[in-house]
Amino acid sequence: LKRLADVKEQQDSSDAEVLKKLAMALGKDLKWLQNGGGEDVAKWKRVKWDAKKERVVEIDWGQQELKGELLPIIGQLTSLQKLYLGSNSNLSGSIPSTIGNCTQLTGFSASSTSIS
Question: What is the pTM of this model?
Answer without folding.
Answer: 0.85
